[in-house]
């Protein structure tokens, strides 16, 4: 199973998060998201070691934060951070699984450095600001987030168990 999880988030739980970020509840409003997530995880399985990184991921800390982990799961909501995650994972040769949703659609992408194309290889340039919808401009339907989260989780389980195409089958 999973022995250690690291959670990176600098934000606090807001009421607008509750309809799609099911790890948080009303009692978590105003609480740091990373702490709220840790508390929910420990409630489900107290044997998981959860390490909090309550800071914004940036070019100064990404390599150090990712270094101890075997797999990166990513649900960031902006291209600058996606490219940062990509570059740090490629540098460390770490697989990562991206999942994102906006409005009524979502996407997931599994990236295995030196085996699959990286995010930057597929999307060479970020779209100009304001050209794509965001959660702020278009909202997001909660169940879409859950579907994408399930896909990302399934890919992670395949990696952890070494099963499935591309993960050692």
What topology does this entry show?
Elements: E1 4-8, H1 33-44, E2 49-53, H2 62-66, E3 72-74, H3 79-92, E4 96-102, E5 105-111, H4 119-122, H5 135-138, H6 142-161
Parallel strand pairs: 1-2, 3-4
Antiparallel strand pairs: 4-5
Give an overview in words.
This protein is an alpha/beta fold. The chain contains 6 helices and 5 strands; from the N terminus they run βαβαβαββααα. Helix 3 links the parallel strand 3 (72-74) and strand 4. The longest helix is centred in the last third of the chain and has 20 residues, at 142-161. It is globular, with a radius of gyration of 16 Å. 23% of the residues are buried.
For the structure shown, list the relevant keywords.
3-stranded mixed β-sheet; alpha/beta; globular; 169 residues; 5 strands
Summarize the structure.
The protein is α/β, with parallel strands linked by helices and 169 residues long. Helices cover 35% and strands 16% of the residues. The chain has a 3-stranded mixed β-sheet with strand order 3-4-5, sandwiched between helices. A two-stranded parallel ribbon has the order 1-2.
Strand order of the largest sheet: 3-4-5
Helix segment count?
6
Taking all residues together, what is the mean pLDDT? Answer: 92
SS-derived structural category: alpha/beta
The major sheet is characterized as: 3 strands, mixed
Strand content: 15-25%
Q: How far apart are the termini?
A: 18 Å
Overall shape: it is globular
Low-confidence stretches: none
How large is the radius of gyration?
16 Å
Strand runs, count: 5
Order of helices and strands: EHEHEHEEHHH
